[in-house]
Amino acid sequence: MRIINVNLGCRSYDIVVGDRIISYLNKFISKLNLCKLQAVVVTNPSILSNHQDYFLQGLRKARDYHFIVLPASEKTKSWPVLFKVLKKVFTIDNRGDVFLVSFGGGVIGDLTGFCAAIYKRGIPYIQIPTTLLGMVDSSIGGKTGIDLEFGKNLVGAFYQPYLVFSDLKFLETLPVKEIKNGISEIVKYGIITDPAIVDFLERNLKQIPKFKPKDWLQIVVKCAQIKAQIVEEDELDNKGVRAILNFGHTLGHALESALNYKGISHGEAVALGMVAESIMANRLNILKEKDLIRIINLITSLDILPRLKVKPSSSRVLSHLKYDKKAKMGELKVVLPVAIGKVKIISSPPLQVIKNSFREAVKLCIK
Ligand SMILES: NC(=O)c1ccc[n+]([C@@H]2O[C@H](COP(=O)([O-])OP(=O)(O)OC[C@H]3O[C@@H](n4cnc5c(N)ncnc54)[C@H](O)[C@@H]3O)[C@@H](O)[C@H]2O)c1
């Protein structure tokens, strides 16, 4: 078991990573003084049906527990579902004696965290990610929120969890498609900060599809350390440090919302976004051809790009850029790689370059 501390003063917390570690959750619940409270666990049906008995071994120290089971879909990150959850929490709450537990992937984590942030102006919550993406990324850093019809994560709050508890055992039942979503974010960490991650992925191309939960330990810990460090430096995403995590997400998010989140997963959209933004960097003469080829080879070899039957309209995708959170005061900021392990933030790149790069990336996805 490995523990990484996210040092944010009075909002500091631990990220615990290990395989088959659920019984240790009881110790953390005691240590965090959550024992006197009722746990309200927000989750999806498939997670509960696969892991309920095992998971409950970690909640022995909570005074009581309740489940709120929500549909597994990006649409769950929405105002009507949030409102339903808030009302349900209120019916369970007996004079402020509840804490929330997000037991799921990024959708459940973002929604539960936001619910914890706004219910009674903030109650404790812990993140128990069950997807690879959740373990390496979304559960860490306190970005919580829901989507609007115009775009993703447009309503939200920074609200740090009390604990992130990543038990790799949950990955046993995670569908391959979802593992690939997590791999996309791992590739992102490699390209933005750490060539060693890219080396690791290149070395393990053949083994990765056969990885057992324990095989993920090293890479999950590495990514959690990177994310923790970035969050420590720029908790509120206003110093330009945390922004580098948006690599691949500017075009990725625009594509997801242009397609109305249908027929494409978050990781696939990010993979396509990373390819398009790397092509953009090359066309703007800030990324060498050999690095671009290495990035494209890695992403195609890992088979994390979407398989598109029809080309999405690049004008429609570009029109969604204006809803991007990274577009401030009319200025679009895009994170572009300058080498493997290093990125730069570029303001308002020429629209034609964005369009052409996106079209080139899409060609790799048409099957
Ligand atoms: N807050 C952040 O910093 C941040 C960062 C990255 C992504 N996100 C958000 O995360 C979301 C995507 O999260 P995700 O990729 O984890 O997807 P998800 O939460 O939709 O989960 C994917 C699917 O896997 C199922 N599942 C989860 N764990 C399982 C398990 N162990 N066994 C079997 N099935 C399981 C879920 O029920 C769901 O059907 C997006 O909404 C994205 O915006 C947030």
How confident overall, as mean pLDDT? 95
Oligomer: single chain
Bound heterogens, unique: nicotinamide-adenine-dinucleotide
Low-confidence stretches: none
Q: Give the structural class.
A: alpha/beta
Helices, by number, come to 13
Which architecture name of the largest domain does CATH use?
Answer: Up-down Bundle
In this structure, how is the largest beta sheet organized?
Answer: 7 strands, mixed
Helix content: 40-55%
Distance between the termini: 42 Å
Predict the CATH topology of the largest domain. Answer: Dehydroquinate synthase-like, alpha domain
What is the H/E order? EEHEHEHEHEHEEEHHHHHHHEEEH
CATH structural class of the largest domain: Mainly Alpha
CATH superfamily caption of the largest domain: Dehydroquinate synthase-like - alpha domain
Strand content: 15-25%
* Overall spatial form: globular
Q: How many DSSP-defined strands?
A: 12
Q: Any idea how many domains?
A: 2
